[in-house]
Give the backbone structure.
Amino acid sequence: MADHGRTVMSQEEDPSPGTMDWSKHPVRSRKQPGRRCKPYPFGKYQPTNRYIENNILDITESGASDFIEPCHEYKAFTNVTEETKMKKFTYEVIRFAAACMNSRTNGTIHFGIGDKPDFIHGQVLGVVVVEDREAYVKELKLAIDRCFAYKHKQIAKMCIKPARFVGVLNKNTTSSDKCVIEVDIVPESKICGENIFQTFNMETKKAKKKAKGKETVKPETKPQKQFFVRDGGSSRDLLAPTTGAKPMVEYGQFVDRIPQLAQLRKQSEEKHPNVIKSSTQGSRLSQMITGGSLSLDKSHFEQYVIITNKSHPVQLESLGFLVELNPTAVLDFDPESAKHGLQHHFKQLSRLSVHLPAKYKITEGVEDIANKLELTRNTSWVFCNRGIEHEVPSEIDEWLMDKGASNRDKMSFLCRKDVLPNKRFLVIFLLLSTVSDEMDPLVKTFSTFYQELKGTEQILCVCDNENAFISWRDLIDARCGIDISSRCIYELSLAEVNGTILSLFSKHLLSKNFLTCGGGSKVILEESVNQSLNTLEVFCIKQQENLDSGGTDVAMFTSWILRDTFRCAVLRDCNADFTEVAEQVVTLLMYGHEEQVPRVPVLLMIYDFKGNHKAVDLQQAIDKECVKKGIQGMSAKVIPLESPTNGSSSHK
């Protein structure tokens, strides 16, 4: 048997990709037009969402619709040099942003997305960002200061969100050095009010000046006033120079409509409130992954098979549960997995044997094949989208022809009753990236398992986010005619999935600190973070406690009994600096949440406050910190409770 943490190779030649850089290897192409895809989710910053080169965004460039649904503008960003591209970037963002702000509509401008006549409308091209990405953020801030009136600079900075760099994959899902740069605009009614936003284009002109009897030429900077609005799929300046008077008439008419637009924007926001989602998917995950036993020490399922696709480095730290599940087989569709993906990460933590799908073809006795694959000894890691030696990975529309047959043999073999225990193994589709194409091999793989297992009772799907789930659900419905929603987990972050599954092992429940995320989901509170919250005593789910006597005990006992419902903490020192306390409380509130919408409030017990003003001061400090961190208004916040022994309480 292999040593723990080492990769065991089967007797055939090692099929792992080694050091070959597949992204630079020639790729076959049938010259088919790119496939339709969704734009990056508005207002999100999830590095796991990526585009595929030459795919086509299914959203056209547009003007204002309902104010909340974002309009889009595409820039190929090809005819620029290293010297001019930053100027082009900031000019186009300011122009687009001002138009969205005046029209009161959300919007996204995309750099690296083609348009007619040179490209297909919405074609993913990508741009190579050589310089530090932070330079784009800095230059945009400088452009805001330069182009907006002083009284509007802060408003513009709040409406224009930081640049987002969306990775672009090659058509065979290998990595490239390209990305699409996107900037979201969010002109909230409470920020913009009824303001009109003129911008200034600083143009340099030559002016004559006399000095000591001589006439000299000196550059003179003359600001040119602009007023952009969204007009269909473009931004138009209503103050642009013209020979007629119509533009000024149109400008006046638009300005007169600003109060109405501001009111319509406010009404639209009220129809789309950012409320806390009440999720029970943590409990559902616990039920499905254990077959109802709610314990992985005595799960109904004896073995697990994992099917997964392209991973991102930020996801790997939240996949520790895979090692603990000790899967019988992992069917890996990421062609770069052994280079810097999940297989590379997993082999450092557990024993595994690497195989190709062809080794599962029944050419001899089933028991002999299982022994050669070492199914009962190591995790069998199967590369499903690459060949041996110098064969390149298949593109999505070529995979079925190139590799479909051997992969079908592999799935049929695993589903045999004399290979894995009948009804006692669970197939988990771990979708680390969005599946958006009906020809994607994972759709075919699901269909095969669905047929082999005669239903979905032994299938669990874990999606990285809700948009990935919607795409997956629709593709499976189109392919198999079923609604897979009841077998999907999609409202939990991977950190929550990881914490929830690990908490089902008694050894981890007793040895690790878990925080509730609501609805039965949990996340691991790393000890380094726990130690950094030094103004608080945090009560984790597995916490035991020794009570002394006095008012402090009441606060601590209340926190302890509510630790499954709230994230509970007790303020250690009532004289601590409130700014520092607020920072740590908000860190506890946000811990483990990828988005700025925490679902579980922090219950903060305080005692020995002399006078209500200290409780009010602390609450104000916490509110200020929430605004600073961009935590959305309708999110769960902080509930400070004074110890009942003081005879008063403060509740929010």
Remarks:
- The two ends are 59 Å apart (CA to CA).
- Residues 33-271 form one domain.
